[in-house]
Design goal:
The chain is built from nine helices and ten strands. The protein is α/β, with parallel strands linked by helices and 315 residues long. The protein has a single domain, classed as Ureohydrolase domain (Arginase, Chain A), CATH 3.40.800. Strands 4-1-5-10-9-6-7-8 form an eight-stranded parallel beta sheet, with helices on both faces. The longest helix has 20 residues.
Amino acid sequence: MAGHGYDTGRLNLPFVGISTFGKYPYVQDWDAIDADVAILGAPFDFGTQWRAGARFGPRGIREASTLFSFGHAGAYDHEDDVTYLEGARIVDLGDADIVHTDTRQSHANIEFGVRKILKAGAIPVVLGGDHSVNIPCINAFDGQGPIHIVQIDAHLDFVDERHGVRYGHGNPMRRAAEKPYVMGMTQIGIRNVSSTARDGYEAARAMGSDILSVRQFRKLGVESVLSRVPEGARLYVTLDIDGFDPSIAPGTGTPSHGGFLYYEILELLDGLARRGRIVGMDLVEVAPDYDHSGTTAILAAQILLNTIGRVLHYR
């Protein structure tokens, strides 16, 4: 009996093999990146102010991502009637080297990796790590042209300096807003008691931020929120897993109740991929040890693979 395409070669189930992101090829030589999307781990969590553990985020997300890699060509979505990730050219570069207690060198090593991805003409997708890893990611976009940042997060992360700290996980959006090539920000999901004081919110708005809570987002609806993002812009998405509700994403350092559910963010990211051109992305603050069910890492992998699929499809 003739075998179908599904029946030839290895079955390669999710629990078999090496846990690269989505089981895509591992590329050790960062001068030989030939892909549409390149994954880079940034397992740095010295910027945290509460529970550490996001250094294990990249490893956890990679392992969870094998669930979505059954070896067939692409992922069919019956609601959209689209097969996403069909023939997708995605590679996993492994991790930037992290030097314990040395924030500047660790960040420099992350920036180096992102610059290599951009030089190769690929879209960088960075797995954190705490939210401070966004700082070197945005640094790497120097000379790439203007970008608009969309942040999904419970916290504004707009602290300028506190006790001499300028590069912790409460500072990244302030550091980004200072860049001449960052044309503005849409900060979504911001809620509850914030690590940023009122003057930080005022500074953010003065520097071009549009700030929406989860309740405001839901009142407006996805399409209205999308209309507030510049059309046709080069978009950089930074997604803190604590933007989601801790009932579905408990594995994070600073959980905040009242967060988003999966489809709200999927629809937002799908809309962003249509409205502008997503040129880079990071997903941060997954700390797997606080979630022994693995649900948080699965959520991270699922949202990333679905977003990458849509970015490539609309392009």
